[in-house]
Amino acid sequence: MKLHSFSNQAKLINSFCSMRGFLLLVLAVMASFFTPGYATANETFPIYRGFNVDANKVSQQDINDLAATGANIVRITFNNLPMMDKTPPYAISPAAMEKLDRILDWCVAAKIRVIVDPHTFPGTNLNVTTMPDDPLWRDFAFHARIVSFWSELSRRYKDRGQVIFAYDLLNEPNLPDSAKKGGPADWNLLASKIVAAIRVNDKTRYLVIEPMGKKLVSGIWVNNIDGLDSLELPQDSRLVVSPHMYLPLKFSHQGVFSYFNKAYSYPSKIDGVTWNKAALRKALEPVVRFQKRYDVPILVGEFSAARWIGDSGNQYLRDLIDIFEENGWSWTYHAFRAAGVWDAEMSNVNEKDQVRYKDTPRMKMLKGYLSRNKPAPL
After folding, report:
1. Could you give the residue ranges of the DSSP H alpha helices within 209-335?
2. Which of 193, 297, 320 is CA-nearest to residue 240?
3. Which residue from 141, 98, 148, 104 is spatially nearest to 123, judged by alpha carbons?
């Protein structure tokens, strides 16, 4: 009798333990859905390949022509049509919202996804990038305005569907050397505020975070790729990290700025460094390290070279894209019909020739890579 009773008790305990184990397993699985983390490379994340376009200039025909190249994504930059006024009362621009609505409709019809990039905000002196001396990095009031903007934009477009792939939180955050953790020049802090504000309205849209650049007291620039070592990601399950790649600037921007002479070829030695594919791969090593550390998708949001550099510029771009492809990174070429400096449809050798041609060597090269795209999920 005692043996029989003991046997029954043992079975009961065993059953309870099995049930307890099952319940713990269920709770663990449920927790995995609700616990914030990083968007991992193991998750299904297709490679996107496309272009930057200027929201102020782009037309429906441009979007259709861009789609015909094979691009499956477009990064819409609002530098020439600011989405938020830079002067009081810092209102969101109705004209910019109206243009974005039209662009989204065009992209749905063309089956292209969109990255919304405001590109400029109150507190930034330039429309094309941020600078270390911008008021943004000295006053928390500008944080509040930017966070307010993203709160309103994400509320407005939360039900817009998959055409909006991502929001690019701030273009090229270049910090002062005096940046302190917890202060107005703490990009990690501002990025976390923006992410939290967007997630109140939109839980699923990807959020693009760019690494910071920095100007040291010595005058030396720490480029945004090396700035990845200082980037701290918010806990969120749908982030994309987006460095820009123009190194070496003396080559990619020759003739763009007056202080960069048209004197360089590729591959060649510039400032004591032999720039070739191996050097480009080395320059991009911080991106590879960061991706391995956080296991997040990478989007090279901008890269280019002055279009008149000829075969030399095209080889530079080909080597860059090869490296992007080796690492499974998405990319958007800068830029499609936005500025003659970068326009791949214009002459690759003659700066003064502003005619657009059906197939320049650069555009043929880009189309070769774009042909690898899969249709965007819309």
Report:
1. 249-252, 277-283, 285-294, 311-326
2. 297
3. 141
CB 212 within 8 A of CB 187: yes
The CATH label, of 1.20.20.10, 3.30.70.260, 3.20.20.80, 3.40.50.1370, for the domain at 49-245+275-370 is 3.20.20.80
For 37-48, what is each residue's pLDDT tens digit?
Answer: 444 443 467 899
With a CB cutoff of 8 Å and minimum separation 6, the contacts of 289 are 228
At 326, is the secondary structure helix, strand, or coil?
helix
Q: Exposed (0-12), middle (13-18) or buried (19+): which is 177, by Cβ within 10 Å?
A: middle
Banded pLDDT at 34 (limits 50, 70, 90): very low
Burial 260-293 (b: 16+ CB within 10 A, else e): beeebbbbeebeeeebbbebbbebbebbbebbee
Residue extents of the structural domains in the chain? 49-245+275-370
Alpha helices in the chain (DSSP H): 2-34, 60-68, 94-110, 140-157, 187-201, 249-252, 277-283, 285-294, 311-326, 361-370
* Rounded Cα distance, 42 and 290, in Å: 15
| pLDDT on residue 162 | 95
Instruction: Retrieve residue 90's tokens.
Output: 């810092």
The answer to whether the Cα torsion of 91, 94, 98, 103 is positive or negative is negative
Q: What's the CA gap between 165 and 377, in Å, rounded? A: 10
Sign of CA dihedral 255, 259, 264, 268: negative
For residues 263 and 254, give the distance between their C-alpha atoms in angstroms, rounded to a whole number. 7
- CA-CA distance, 181 to 212, in Å (whole number)? 13
Q: How far apart are CA 193 and CA 287, in angstroms?
A: 24
Closest CA to 243 of 133, 153, 323: 323
Model pLDDT for residues 316-342, shown as the tens digit of each residue: 999 999 999 999 999 999 999 999 999
CA distance 126 to 120: 7
Q: Are 132 and 214 in contact (CB under 8 A)?
A: yes
